[in-house]
Amino acid sequence: MEIYPKELREHPKPLIGIIGNNDIEEVFQHTEFHKLNFLHLKEIEELPLPKRKNILPSDNYHLPGLIKAKWLKKHRDYIPSVLINFFSANDLINNEKRITDEITKIKQKTKTKTRMYKFVIVFLQETNNTLTNETKEEKLNQIKKRIEIDSKQGNLFLFSLKEKKMSSQKLFTIINDLSERFYREEGRRVKKNYSDIYSKKAQPDLFTRGNFKCGFYSEARGDYKNALKYFNRSYKNLLEIPKRGFGLLEIRMIGFVLCFKMISLQLSLKNIGEAIFIFKQYTNNSKAYVQRGNKGELENLIISWYQYKLFAEMLEKIPKTSLSKKTNYWESIGFYYHAAANYSLERKNSSKFLIQKYQKEFSNCDLDSFNKNNNMIDFFFNIDNSIFLCQIIWRVRNNEDKQLEPKSTFKLNTSNTELSSDYESENDNNNPESNSNRNMNINNNDHDNKKTNNTNNKVNNNTNKKTNTSDKVNNNGNDDDDDDGHDDEHSNVEDNNKNDRNSNLVLIKENGKKKKKNRQTISLRNKSDKSTIIHNSTQNLFCFLYSEQQFNHSKEIIDLFTRAYKCYSQEAISSERLIHSISTRIAIAYFQQNEFQFAKLLFTLISKHFRKQKWWNELLKILIYSLECGNQLDDYNYFANCALELCIPKIGLPLESRIIIQDKLFKMISEPKKNNYFKPPIKFLMTKDFPLYDLIDCTIQFTEPTVYFNTPLISKFSLISHLPKAISLDQIQILFNLPVYDRVIMKSPINIPTKGKGTQNEEELKSKEYIITKSPFYFPNLILQPNKLTVFTFQWIASSAKKIVVKAVRVICGNKESGLCFEWVKFPKSINSPIYLKTFPSRPTTQILQLPANITIDIESPQPGLINEYFPILIKLNSNQDHIKNGNFLIYFKNHEKGEIYHQNTKDLLSKKKNKIFFKEIHPYNTINQVLFIKSPITGSFQLLIYVIYEHKLGYSQISKTEYNIKFSKPFLKQYIYHSLSKDLSKDETTVLLDKQFFFLNLGLISKTPIPININQIDLILFDNIGKILSKSFNSKSGESKLSTNNNQNNFFKLNDNENENGNGNVIEHGNGIEMEIENENENNEENESKNNDDNYKKSISIKQGEKCEVFFLINPYKVFGPDDNKLKNSKILPNKKEKKIFQTSKKVSIGDIKIQMIRTNPIKFYSYYTDYWKKKNFAFELTFKTSPVEFVRRKVTMDIDYPSNGIVGHPITCAYYLHNHSDRLQKIWLKVEQSEFFLYSGFNYSELVLLPRAIRKLIYIFIPKKCGKLPFPKIQFFQKETSQLLKESRKNYHIFVSPSKK
Amino acid sequence: MIVVSLAIVGQKNNPLYIYCSEPENKRKFEYIIHRSLDFFEEKVNSNSSKETKSQQSLFLGLLFPTETYRVFGYITNTNYKLICILNDLTSKNEEVSKLLRSFHHLLIQALCNPFYITDEPIDSEKFHNGVLEKILN
């Protein structure tokens, strides 16, 4: 904005001239005085007066230039609308005549023939003045009448210092009114002149000027709408001007000024849309005014850059609220900055081109002189005669607008209303404005002859006179023609400029037949400055180019792009890509400014976007710059990254460039540079940010997108390397969603297509087969040649029933010599192949191999199985004739979740996941038996699917699919126990037993299990040696309710051989348990085996459902009541009297545990496969329970008998009876001896005995046998007197064998 | 109505086909095409509230004008974008819409080609000839 001239940038303010050096600070106290500009004039003579020119109205008259540059400045800064002169109010009375003369003089001076200045005479009334206001006003009225002052021209005002504010306000109103009147009159006058004299169609240039002036006058008086109207008319007139070659640039520049005037007015009125429309209109129209040729194009670029930048700055100054919602491209400020930046970029290129074009001539020029004199403006001046053009372009190019600002103005400080005079003389040789004004004065004038010198040229400096040495050239500012026939004299300012002329170039433009001439006027002062004179257009061009060369284009471009970037970023319009492209431009600009580090950073950031969206051309550009950045910064890794990326064909780098980059890259990699080696490895990890192209292209092709279970699947894995050099492939890893690659059984024949040139390695590789068992696959010594396709063929057998997805393919390869290493990962999005594998195990198969094998499956165990029993399954595979190998036989199970399957040989538990068994081959005419055991901990029905499958690389065969329903049930035995003194269960006997009395424990079992139960062993384990099991017997019978009798006993079960030999009948003793055996059909066949085997595993008895069996145990409970009392006595020397010994009469106890072991009923045919492990464990069920309690009654008196086992006839036999009193009381016993026919004895038949407490009494009887043979002893009965209870012996009948006497 | 450039941009905003009548200005056109994607997004987002898309709504009209060109957009239901740059500043929407529809038909035929790989640049000669025919006629 600063580069735009102030007179165009700001709205004009009415200019007020103040005559004299009076102290007037107090007068301008009103705040609205800042709306006015002030000009200080020492005397009334300094007032510039218009000069009259004798221009006749003519249709042929055309302006030499459309608008003079100084016109605006002149009317803003030098021509006042109102003149103010100050007098003391006292003079009204004291010096009335002098005042009258002064006013008359002012009146005459301000009223010219064409222009009527306004004036205000202010009488300052001091506070101590004694005269009243009324008398003074009367005086004023008198003077007014006397001098005949018209109120339209001037006024007299009495300023009371007493009432400063009020007076100040009144004074402002008067001045403002007069000022407005002045500008209105000026406008009317100009308008009248044009409309009266000239033709609109024939002379649009004159109307352009006229309307422009009218617009300016309207603007000056604050009437913006009228100003817009006139400027618009002026612009329309401008467009009607015929496009002459030499005037194109001038027309364009005037249009530029007019449009920006209108734009600034519209923006002041807050009509942003209108302002944008005007700008668009102007830019469209201005295209017609572009001059042809390099110079013209360059000019156009400069102007375009300038206008866009200026407009953007103007929009930016508007409060943000009015531009908050941007829905249109044209409403975006960023757009204008962006356009300006683009033009700036083009301008840079164009100027570079021109400099190169004129390089030779340009180098011969004295460039220093251009710099010193800054005379490049002459170039434009020679081309076109526009003063405005010169002014604007010169200022634009040099950015020295500040020096152009008029300084002879009063600046009013609105805050303290102080009026300060900053007026300085412009007689400054170094002031560039003087140069510009000098040039402004150089107008080719085809009315030189008609010119009349200004008669008012009184104030000209002497120096000025000296410089006017040439009569032909009017160097005086008053020489300027004005189309209205007037010129203004402002000699004090302009004439001083004349002193500064170092060189003067006068171009006489030919209008029609007139020739253009350059005239030089060399000032006296600078005659010695010989090198600065530029006298022809070529030199002007060089000057211009020199200036272009000095201009920092990159800085300007960066600045504009950065501004555009900021604006776009802040605005609501979506401009993501635009921002990226602007960022690219910024980065390039930084690069061109040799700021490589920052450029590299920017390029790295931007490249992601283009890479992601595959805009290869943009990326190519960025990469090339990035490459150079890396090179300049000696960042080898970065350089190599960029170079490799550029080598990829998709990027689209031309082949030649590609080769160059490749060579450079490998040179850099292999050779040390500045003691710095390339740092291996470079990792090209194709992550999400870098997924778009491939250094190594990869495709995976599967034969089918969906495959069945165990179907061989062929996949082709093709690699093509875009790397510039051959690299060795180290490993390939195909990553699946599941670790199924563990199951890959394959091999990889490697096929290298014949298109490429064959190498030794290829031939070698063809013959090789790599057996792959696990991913990653290693390929030693495999070399990927650049740009040659290498194909690997894999065969897979999918061993998983789940969906398989290839997640990624990873290739690791490297070049050992250079240390270059690539880790390349490709994700499935970019893999162009059907990568989904599905397996359907339950689907019917179609590719079944014909195998010469018969497979049979036997289930050896009867249904149902018992829980916790090993339920065996035998699988037999028979091969009829062939040797089946090179494949896998696979057996697997399903739906056995509730049970456990054990493998026979390995004894491993086959879990749910590892439910497969493999075996490799079957020999011809041979059978493979596989035994499995199923064990279920719970009851229920199980469905078991057994698949037998043969897998081979060529196919597979589902040999069988067997479905079984296995029921597992619990073996259930209902048991009952009772105790009796005899085995005959039909007799009713009490369960109350005397101690030490022999009794039978009867165990009855009834089977409720649906399958026959084999009872292998029944054990009775007595507690703490409570007694002794004397014998056991077993009785079983099929039937419902009745218990078995002794009749069928022997038929039902068979006793052990060893026990039979004992000759104890059906009662056997074998440890604490009883073992049973039934007759077996295979007994004889397996006799030998059974002998070798453990004895525990061969005997059992079967009980079918509903059958009952009984087991008898004859028990002598001799320790039911604890230790013997005698022993206690013996152990203690003296009995403890205090010890209370309670005689326990009865006790109810369970005598022990019964343990029943059961196994399956039917023998297992294939038990030969069993190992020891299984034999030991082969019982189905074990039942353990306690016996029911028995009540034992203790006797108070017991009797024992001791007698010999044999005797001799006639020889006495001694027999002893022991009576034992267990109680603590006396016991009376009756004794009765019966008579016997076999024995002789002496003594009482009846007697009474008394037993002391806890005493034992021994009774001895002597018997003499009379006969020989087995003879019963005579009965001796003992009765307890209290209860008359017979004391029983241990045995009922006692016999003795009597042998005859020896004779 | 002079078509100076025609571009087809894929679903992921990647260029599939770019035709330039002035090869020397290819960069410039590419820049305009790339820039126009912003306007596509803006227009599509603003129209996303509308439930139904008629055939007419595929044609987005004038995306933005530059100083010398006018850029028109057309988006297919499958999110392929057709960008047409015209030299004629007075061209009518109806004509351009008709032209872009015809390009759309050509695009469908090209995409149906079994040898065409999705998201890869279209290098079908038939398609190119079809485009040239439409442009020149």
TrEMBL record, chain A:
Stretches with biased composition (Polar residues): 410-419
Domain Trafficking protein particle complex subunit: 249-355, 548-646
InterPro entries, per database record: TPC11 (IPR021773), TRAPPC11_C (IPR025876)
Biased composition (Basic and acidic residues): 487-501
Domain Trafficking protein particle complex subunit 11 C-terminal: start-end pairs: 1231-1277
Entry keyword annotation includes NAD: no
Coiled-coil intervals, chain numbering: none
Keywords carried by this UniProt record: ER-Golgi transport, Golgi apparatus, Transport
Chain positions covered by the region annotation Disordered: 407-521
Cellular localization per UniProt: Golgi apparatus, cis-Golgi network
Top-level division of the source organism's lineage: Eukaryota
Ranges of Low complexity composition bias in the record: 428-444, 452-477
Recorded family membership: Belongs to the TRAPPC11 family.
Role summary: Involved in endoplasmic reticulum to Golgi apparatus trafficking at a very early stage.
Name this polypeptide is given: Trafficking protein particle complex subunit 11
Organism: Anaeramoeba flamelloides
UniProtKB/TrEMBL annotation, chain B:
A UniProt-annotated Pfam family: Sedlin_N
SUPFAM superfamilies xrefs: SNARE-like (SSF64356)
Any one annotated GO CC term: cytoplasm
GO BP: endoplasmic reticulum to Golgi vesicle-mediated transport
Stated family: Belongs to the TRAPP small subunits family. Sedlin subfamily.
Protein name: Trafficking protein particle complex subunit 2-like protein
